[in-house]
Amino acid sequence: MENNTTMSHLVNLTEMPLFPLEEQVITIFLTMLICGVGIAGNIMVVLVVLRTKHMVTPTNCYLVSLAVADLIVLLAAGLPNISDVVAFWIYGYTGCLCITYLQYLGINVSSCSITAFTIERYIAICHSIKAQFICTVSRAKRIIAGVWIFTSLYCIMWFFLVDTNETVYANGVVVTCGYRVSRSLYMPIYFLDFTLFYVIPLIIATVLYGLIARILFMSPLPSHLNDQGGGGSIHQGHSNSTKQANKSAVSARKQITKMLAVVVILFALLWMPYRTLVVVNSFIDPPYHNTWFLLFCRMCIYANSAINPIIYNLMSQKFRVAFKKLCKCKWRNEEKAAKYNVPVYYSVMKNSSHESNNEPVTEQEEISGPNTNRCNATDDDDDASTLSISQ
C-alpha cells in the first residue's frame, strides 16, 4: 500500500533524466546473465545438500545458508535493478522497505555464513579431537538459525531508514527509493555495518586461514593428521591401507580448505569496489557517482553471489559428482514421464531368473520395477572415488 504522506516532493522543471540506451542494454544483459546463472547455481547447491545424505555435513550446512543468502541478494538487488534502469522505481513505498531490508539481510547473512564456516574449518583441522564433539550437523544448524535470527533483527532498522522520494520534472514524475535520514546521520550506521560484516569477517578469515595453512601445508604434518590410528598395526596390509586412508583424508581437507579460502578471497575482492566507493564518498562532497563505475560495483556484488556454485563445481569433486547426479535425475524423471505417457500393454513372459518357481513377470514390471528408485538410491551412495567434503 502506498504511503504518500512520507514522500518528499521536489520540483525540478528541467527535462526528466533518462538512462542512455547503451547503459540500459549493458545493465539488463549483464544483470540477467549473472542473476540467471547465480539463481540456478545456488538452487542446485541447496538441492544437492538436502537430497544427498552424505553431503549433509557441518561445512555444507553453512554453504546452504550462504547459498540461500546469495539467492536473496540476487532476487532483491539484482532483478529490481533491471526495472529500475528502465522505468525508475516501480515497487512503491512497501517495495522500497522490503527490498532494502532483504538486500541487507542477504548481504549480512552471507558474511556471517563465511565467518561461521571459517571457524568450523579451523576447529576441524587445528583442534580435530574437539571437533568430533563441536563440529556436528546439529550444532551447525543451531548456529545458522542464530545467525539468521540475529541478522533479521539487526536489519529491522532499515525499515526506518529508507523512504520513497518524488521529483517532479517538466515532462513527468520520477520516484526513487532512497534514505530517509540525512547523510551525516547515515554514516555511523554504515560504518557499523561495514565493520561488523566486512572488516571483522576478513580479519578473522585471514588469521584463521593462516593458522590452518600452517597445520595443513607444513612438513611433516602433525601426528593427529598424518598417522591417525594406523601406526601400531602388526598387519602390514592393514597399515598400508590405513596410511592410504589417512593420506586421502588429509588431501580432502586440503581440497575443501582451498575451496573455502577462494570463496573468502572472492568475497573480499568483489565487495572491495563498492565498500571503497562508500568510504571515499563519506569524506568528499559532492560524492563520486560515475555511472559506469557504479554499474561495475553492482555487477561485482551480483557476481559474488553467483560465483560460489561455480567454485564448488571446479574445486570440489564431491560437489561436481552431486551436481551431475542431480542433473541426471532430472533428465531421467523427464524421460520416464514421457515414456509413461504412451499406452502400455501387459503380457505375461517367462523370466529366466524365476525358473525355479516359474513366476511370471510382466513387461510393466521389467520397465518400472527394479529401476524405479535408482535415482533416489544413488543419492545415498558415497562414491568411493570421491573425497568426503567433511574431512
TrEMBL record:
SUPFAM superfamilies: Family A G protein-coupled receptor-like (SSF81321)
Cellular component terms per the entry's GO annotation: membrane
Cited PROSITE patterns: G_PROTEIN_RECEP_F1_1, G_PROTEIN_RECEP_F1_2
This protein's UniProt keywords: G-protein coupled receptor, Membrane, Receptor, Transducer, Transmembrane, Transmembrane helix
Gene3D superfamilies noted in UniProt: Rhodopsin 7-helix transmembrane proteins (1.20.1070.10)
KW Transmembrane (keyword) present: yes
Record localization: Membrane
Domain of life: Eukaryota
Entry protein name: Thyrotropin-releasing hormone receptor
Source taxonomy: Eukaryota, Metazoa, Chordata, Craniata, Vertebrata
